[in-house]
Design brief:
9% strand; globular; Glutaredoxin; alpha/beta; 14 helices; 3 domains; five-stranded mixed β-sheet
């Protein structure tokens, strides 16, 4: 259980809910029903063995947070997942009813049997075999965009840009509507930009002379994308966002999100009812984007 304030809300509730459900209890010291349900929630946090995290917000002291959630009466309990409220209830429910509520969203981790470690995937260790498998998947079903996206990504990672462009072409028109296709389009655009051999030294000099030269910063980020220096590229884009969130029709934010889409690995398999953990790099940079955009 943790007490939440405006200062730690982003980290302890929004960011934490990306990898674990967070149960937010809005209460006040003078509230009798709050004193009844508070111990129940604390007990259940232990009973569910880490299945959720309990966060308590004193609505008297944190009126801004209570207002943001539209709290009209207390106690009010809100369940957060992936940064968003997904369910909730008001009033001091008995323990059985709270368990029914939690069981819809939360799995008691302590009750989960240990899973055997999956056998190593030989394709994951052999890029050539993985490329061949993806190529066969696309050839067998040309309309399978998931396989096509994975194949284009694998080709680009292998440095086979020309093959990647040919493979990408049949789905290029979907870039405006499909995030993972848009991400590949931005990667290919960065490679085309880098092929013109812009001077990184000149771009760095422009940025040093004027930290608000956003075009130079964006071009520097594109060079870093072409070199697959993903975190360095996102750092450069964050410098733009911290100074002008909407620069060039939201171009920096859209490119940042595209990089997250590119570098996020497939989610590992977990027991039913559990939420797979985020990749630590992706989670860190997603939090950084959120803190800048929401500031």
């Amino acid at each position: 259980m943790i007490d939440i304030t405006a200062e730690n809300f982003e980290q302890e509730v929004i960011a934490a809910s990306m990898s674990q459900p967070v149960l937010v209890d809005f209460w006040a010291p003078w509230c009798g029903p709050c004193k009844a349900i508070g111990p129940i929630l604390e007990k259940l946090e232990g009973d569910y063995g880490g299945g959720f995290k309990l966060a308590k917000i004193n609505s008297d002291e944190e009126q801004q947070l209570a207002g943001a959630f539209g709290i009209r009466s207390i106690p009010t309990v809100v369940l957060m997942k992936n940064g968003q409220p997904v369910d909730g209830f008001m009033g001091a429910l008995p323990e059985g009813k709270v368990r029914e509520f939690l069981d819809k969203h939360v799995q008691a981790l302590a009750e989960q049997p240990e899973e055997e470690e999956p056998a190593p995937d030989p394709l994951a260790e052999d890029p050539a075999a993985r490329l061949e498998k993806l190529q066969q998947a696309v050839a067998t079903d040309p309309s399978n965009d998931d396989a096509r996206v994975d194949y284009v990504k694998a080709l680009l990672q292998a440095g086979r840009e020309a093959d990647a462009r040919r493979t990408f072409e049949p789905m290029a028109a979907k870039a405006a509507a499909v995030r993972k296709v848009d991400a590949l389009a931005r990667w290919l655009d960065a490679l085309a930009f880098a092929a013109a051999k812009p001077s990184a030294a000149q771009l760095d000099a422009k940025i040093a002379a004027n930290k608000r030269d956003f075009q130079a910063r964006f071009d520097r980020a594109r060079l870093l994308v072409a070199q697959q220096q993903w975190t360095a590229a996102m750092d450069e884009l964050l410098e733009i966002l911290m100074r002008d969130k909407a620069w060039s029709e939201d171009l920096a934010r859209k490119t940042y999100i595209a990089i997250l889409e590119i570098i996020e690995p497939p989610k590992p398999k977990v027991a039913e009812g559990q939420i797979p953990p985020d990749d630590p790099v992706v989670a860190t940079y997603r939090r950084r984007l959120s803190s800048v955009v929401l500031s």
